[in-house]
Structure formats: C-alpha cells, structure tokens
Amino acid sequence: MPQPIDRSRSLTQLDGQRWADPPPDTTAMVRNVHELRHRPIGLLAPHELARLIGQDVGLPWLLPRAVEILRDTAPGQAAGGWYDEDLLYAVVTRNRHAWTDVPQAAYWTAELRNTLTVLVDLSRSLKREADTCLSTLPGGTS
Questions:
Q1: 39-62: pLDDT as tens digits
Q2: How many CB atoms lie within 10 A of CB 108?
Q3: Which pTM value belongs to this model?
Q4: Which residues of 114-133 are buried (b: 16+ CB within 10 A; e: fewer)?
C-alpha cells in the first residue's frame, strides 16, 4: 500500500505553487480550475477531479485519488450500477508520461489496470481509450 496523500491539503499546498489570479475576462473553465486548486483534494467531487485531470492539473496527487474512486466504484458498475465515465475518460486519456511524477506510480498503474479489467459495458469509444491506456501505461504491453 502506498504512502497516503494528505487529503486535507489543496493542490496549492501540495505543489507549493501560487498561481496568479486569472484575468477578469477569462473563461469559466479557467476560473473554476483556479478555484479548485484551493480546495482540499479529499473534498473534490469526481466531476471536479475529472475537470482538473482533463486540464493536466495536479496529476501527481489527483491521478491516485481518481484511481481510488474508480477502483472503489468499479464493482458496482460491473453489477449494473452507474459509473462515472467522465472521470474514467479523464484518467485513461492522460499521456503515459503523466504517471512519471506520481508517487508510487507502479502501484497506482497496477490498480488502474485491475480496475479496467473489472469494468463492463463501456461505450465503444471509452473502451478504445481504456484499451489504449492499458497498452501504454508503464509496465504495459505496447
């Protein structure tokens, strides 16, 4: 089991970077990403994680958190329950090099690998992305 990340800390605290405030005429997406960086990562909802991950923000801390959520909810999806495909899409479409800075990446990529094998009934396009991810993850069979 990897060393836990302090979920009470925000991305701003974890990465030590203080971003300048966004310009007043910026998009809602940019404003939202800036705001989410100040929230404790343990309080981020799956759709908020998907937004940040999709923008390649905070990946060393958010990819493990997303994999935890995906792993913990995968059995329910396999049994016919709802599954957060937006979060899954955000994770599986990251560049394989995104895992480079993730602490204990081998553990988390193995967890993602195991999770992807449990999932059923994914849309054709998401299944294709998941298969590509499996083949390109560190330790994959590309």
A1: 999 999 999 999 999 999 999 999
A2: 22
A3: 0.88
A4: ebbeebeebeeebeebbeeb
